[in-house]
Design goal:
single chain, 301 residues, Rossmann fold, binds phosphoric acid mono(formamide)ester
């Protein structure tokens, strides 16, 4: 594996290897072997979980970690992205871990700028967040053993969600029974034949093994026709009574950050069922260790 761009670019053996390596790191059964490599975190959008867990993952592997800050970098003095990336590679950066609002930032860099950098997508616009889907997959496997045939329901702002797209790509590949619930204003334009779409929350979550709520991505839309936060809360917010009635055994998941009492009530979030969300965050470190280990293993590049 040379880059991690999106789920589509991974084959099943690479996904299996990431999950397996993450598990061995979690069980402390493996010593890292990529110490000395250098990761540069280039985040043009805010982040807590992804940025900190990539940083920690790299440190646990014995890698050097550099934080690139666009605002204080020489990009703000007129340097081109091409020159910046060439200089980062010359200085000794091996992995560029990138979060952008732009959907195809990494693809554009790869086609236009020839540098010996290994790119990792840490969230790109509305299109892809591969390590989030991989850590969600690991969390589901830990709890359910398999996703094959399981009803997995993703609820919320699907239209603007890179997490939904990466999860749908991965879960359908493993024959999960993927359902989506959203009001019309959050329905995606890129609907798929292998996913079932609902506007009614109870229909979507009924008998689900997993219910994954998503944050409303307010920063990605203006004046969205029909959008009304109070309407959303009334019809789509998850709460304990609803879960008990329609899918009492379901795992409750959320990629974070959660907007409390919008996507999920505080009482559900703070209950035992809400704990899975923190387990997702914990698994993020191990999945990111696995990805960095594979990218930097001798012979990978
Ligand atoms: N899930 C996720 O990407 O969270 P952050 O934006 O905090 O990294």
């Amino acid at each position: 594996m040379k880059h991690l761009i999106d789920i589509k670019s991974l084959d099943k053996s690479e996904i299996a290897q990431i999950v397996s390596l993450a598990r061995t790191f979690k069980l402390k059964k493996r010593q890292p072997s990529v110490g000395g490599s250098t990761a540069c975190l280039m985040f043009f959008e805010n982040s807590t979980r992804t940025k900190i867990s990539f940083d920690l993952a790299a440190q646990k592997l014995g890698m050097n970690v550099i934080h690139f800050d666009g605002g204080t970098s020489s990009l703000s003095k007129g340097e081109t992205l091409k020159d910046t990336l060439e200089n980062l590679a010359a200085i000794g950066v091996d992995n560029l871990i990138v979060r952008t609002t732009e959907d195809d930032f990494i693809q554009r860099c790869m086609s236009e700028i020839k540098v010996p950098l290994s790119y990792v997508n840490a969230g790109s616009g509305t299109t892809a967040h591969p390590t989030q889907a991989l850590l969600d997959f690991l969390t589901m496997l830990e709890k359910l053993a398999t996703v094959k045939g399981k009803k997995i329901c993703i609820v919320g702002d699907i239209a603007h969600s890179r997490v939904a797209r990466s999860n749908i790509e991965l879960l359908t590949r493993y024959q999960a029974n993927v359902h989506v619930v959203a009001p019309e204003y959050f329905m995606p334009e890129d609907k798929r034949d292998d996913v079932t779409y609902h506007t009614n929350l109870a229909d979507g979550i009924k008998d689900a093994s997993v219910v994954m709520a998503l944050r409303i991505q307010k920063e990605r839309f203006d004046n969205l026709e029909g959008y009304d936060i109070n309407d959303y809360i009334r019809h789509y917010r998850l709460h304990s009574k609803l879960i008990a009635e329609y899918c009492q055994y379901a795992l409750i998941m959320h990629p974070g950050p959660v907007n409390r009492d919008v996507e999920i009530t505080s009482e559900l979030l703070d209950s035992k069922k809400g704990q899975t969300i923190l387990e997702q965050a914990q698994n993020g470190t191990y999945v990111r260790m696995a990805v960095l280990e594979m990218l930097n293993a001798k012979g990978a590049n």
